[in-house]
């Protein structure tokens, strides 16, 4: 089969590799398409627990073409999506049922071969039925699952207000999840007019154009965004979905008393947030993170099937395996790129 493969960081190559064989309990899937995201950019530079050689791609939809020995519950020809994340089952967290915090996470497309390939073989427990779902919707099941986990972490108070920094695919999905999860008013802020236009089409209550955040303009942006909140005093929830600490530093000043800042974007490991402990104490604020997901796939698929979470307009770019460098280039530099999809 043809696949994008890294023998080492920074050097992806599309080439012929042996077809994977479905092992016992595994499902062999012909990949229809797979989403490209910020994680793939981190893997490109060798970050994020990447294990080489590696075929990346962790957001795939495809069709079952084979079953390993003893595999049940799936039929050849069935459309499926893959939850890339697996837990070890024997670390202290797993034994306590806290699966997403597993110390030995295995992820398809991160530290085991993924879906920027014509074929992939994965354990049946990580495969979910997606029959009847538009492949352009199903390909967003993984980011939607991560957004569902973000909502599960937040458990926002009914009637609260929320501001999401970042109108990318994950920010757009989490904004909708919060709206259906009880948040009464959801705003999304982003420098890209095109992305805000897409988000408006997904039913977000308020879109707020902002310039790129710098230390020089941060205070005036905070003032403007606070004034735009439903109460004029800030937001009960602020989500940092850009991966920028400069943006993250706007979070606490924009929270109402008792509010929560959710760190949802993937920042560099060296980045630092600046938070006044007195403010956390006096205003009873919470700063929390949301990383990946383990058990949110079925809920996310249900929300995609009902249309509670919508995806219209999110996919803007498609690349073949042989133009993987083009996908990386678009993800890094093309301001019109929203969701990029790789089509084997
Ligand atoms: Zn991803
Ligand atoms: Zn574990």
From TrEMBL:
The keyword Nuclease does not apply. Its cofactor is Zn(2+). It comes from Microlunatus flavus. It holds the Pfam family ADH_N. Residues 169-302 form the Alcohol dehydrogenase-like C-terminal domain. Residues 23-129 form the Alcohol dehydrogenase-like N-terminal domain. PANTHER family: L-THREONINE 3-DEHYDROGENASE. This is D-arabinitol dehydrogenase (NADP+). GO terms for molecular function: oxidoreductase activity. SUPFAM superfamilies: GroES-like, NAD(P)-binding Rossmann-fold domains. Keywords: Oxidoreductase. The keyword Cell wall biogenesis/degradation does not apply. Gene3D superfamilies: Medium-chain alcohol dehydrogenases, catalytic domain, NAD(P)-binding Rossmann-like Domain.
């Amino acid at each position: 089969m043809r696949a994008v493969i890294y023998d080492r960081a920074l050097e992806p190559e599309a080439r012929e590799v042996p077809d994977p064989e479905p092992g016992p309990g595994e499902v062999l899937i012909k990949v229809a398409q797979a989403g490209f995201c910020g994680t793939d950019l981190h893997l490109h530079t060798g970050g994020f627990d990447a294990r080489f050689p590696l075929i990346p791609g962790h957001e795939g939809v495809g069709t079952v073409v084979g079953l390993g020995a003893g595999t049940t519950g799936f039929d050849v020809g069935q459309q499926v999506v893959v939850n890339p994340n697996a837990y070890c089952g024997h670390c202290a967290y797993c034994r306590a049922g806290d699966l997403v915090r597993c110390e030995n996470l295995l992820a398809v497309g991160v530290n085991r071969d993924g879906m920027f390939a014509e074929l992939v073989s994965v354990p049946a427990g990580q495969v979910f039925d997606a029959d009847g779902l538009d492949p352009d919707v199903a390909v967003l099941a993984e980011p939607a699952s991560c957004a569902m986990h973000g909502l599960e972490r937040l458990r926002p108070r009914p009637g609260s207000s929320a501001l999401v920094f970042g109108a990318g695919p994950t920010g757009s999905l989490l904004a909708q999840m919060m709206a259906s999860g009880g948040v009464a008013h959801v705003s999304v802020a982003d420098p890209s007019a095109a992305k805000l236009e897409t988000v408006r089409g997904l039913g977000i209550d308020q879109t707020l154009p902002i310039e790129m955040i710098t230390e020089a303009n941060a205070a005036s942006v905070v003032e403007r965004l606070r004034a735009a909140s439903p109460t004029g005093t800030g937001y009960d929830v602020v989500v940092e979905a850009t991966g920028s600490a400069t943006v993250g530093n706007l979070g606490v000043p924009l929270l109402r008393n008792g509010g929560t800042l959710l760190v949802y974007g993937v920042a560099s490991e060296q980045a630092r947030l600046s938070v006044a402990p007195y403010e956390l104490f006096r205003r009873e604020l919470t700063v929390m993170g949301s990383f990946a997901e383990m058990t949110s796939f079925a809920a996310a698929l249900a929300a995609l099937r009902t249309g509670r979470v919508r995806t219209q307009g999110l996919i803007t770019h498609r690349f073949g395996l042989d133009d993987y460098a083009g996908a990386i280039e678009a993800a890094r530099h093309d301001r019109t790129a929203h969701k990029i999809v790789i089509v084997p």
